[in-house]
Specification:
The protein is α/β, with parallel strands linked by helices. The protein has two domains: about 20-175 and about 340-360, Rossmann fold; about 180-335 and about 370-410, Dihydrodipicolinate Reductase, domain 2 (2-Layer Sandwich). Helices cover about 35% and strands about 20% of the residues. The chain has 15 helices and 14 strands. The strands form two sheets. Strands 13-12-11-7-10-9-8-14 form an eight-stranded mixed beta sheet. It has a six-stranded parallel beta sheet with strand order 3-2-1-4-5-6, sandwiched between helices.
Amino acid sequence: METRQTKTNLTRRQFLKSTAVVSSAAVLPSSSGLFAAGQEKMRVALIGCGGRGSGALKDCLQAAADVNLQIEIVALADFFKERALRTAADNSVSEDLCFDGPLAYQKALASNADLVLLVSPPIFRPRHFEAAIAAGKHVFMEKPVAVDPPGARKIMEVGRIAKEKGLSVGVGAQRRHQASYLKIKQAIDQGVLGTILAGQVWWCMQRLWYQTRRPGESDAEYMVRNWVSFTEMSGDHIVEQHFHNIDVANWYLGKTPRQCVGFGGRARRKTGSQFDFFSVDYDYGEGVHIHSMCRQVDNCYNRVAEFFTGARGTTAGDGPITLFSGEKVSLPELKLHENPYVQEHIDLLRRIRDGKPQEEAQWAAETNMTAIMGRISAYTGQLVRWQDLMDPQSKAPWYNLKLSPSAEDFEAGTVIAPADDVIAIPGA
């Protein structure tokens, strides 16, 4: 068994010391040209065959059927062989198209896939995304897209490259493809609500799953199997889950926050390195504040929602709109798939098929950075500014904050897991 650290790198002192930058992912040659507009068959590779990965593949297959597009699965890759084989069996895919290990993604990208689904734990997303775009593939990637500031900026950089290459990028933020949210966004843009003045976003629920460490399991295997328990793997639940609600705030306001201050802590968890709860005030400028609240604790009141107050009325994230005047608001019907997880794939497949590239990397990375900003503030107890994470001239201690172990460590076989139940202490 590998030697384990006694302290995590997420303390205030180590935040201040961190200066590492993200290294480039392996650049793989493209094995196929761009998917030709009008083709009836699309080749798809899945990287990450866990529950969400298998779900994303199922949604993609359903979407393809809805737009009369044939899908051929040409590669399945996962850290664990049994997961790739299980997904292969579920989809009648030959075992020789399955790849496992930390470099499995490279083998999948060397296939003739037109579209790759990136659904491995978030720690790997920037590296896998960079390699996929270098290989000339269209991409669907799950949120979150990064766990630290250098990773989020890498997503932005590679997103710009994808746009230059004419490659489509979709992100698993299904609210942006959901009729109820799209109608509210349209109404906001039309001025129905007036200027948004304040809002609240929540993701409060029970603790997620956890797997007991298996005898003889390496640190790398343990962390991958339990990626939702480690900040280094998931970004913490303010980044991994609460991403959706924070994204609605950024989307509806049409901008990112200037700064934030927050707090959080640990009350129940005994494993991993995450907080149990966060409370963050996001300042969007001009007196507009959004309060963010997320929690993963059993036997508590749960709420997953958004609420906004405008100059003319209020609305939940998915409606209805209530105007102070009492005037009724009629919203147009949108003919979309009832399942937004399928609709986001429908939208992506159509854009690829029609030769009209979709670009979702930039705003996804901005939302991701917004959540990371809140996490850093809660971990350190400090006010954190947007420019601290985006401007290299800011000289902020968090600009080059790169969590460890990194994706590169998994590929090199140098992973040392943080000790369980050692967490950041605000003000330390």
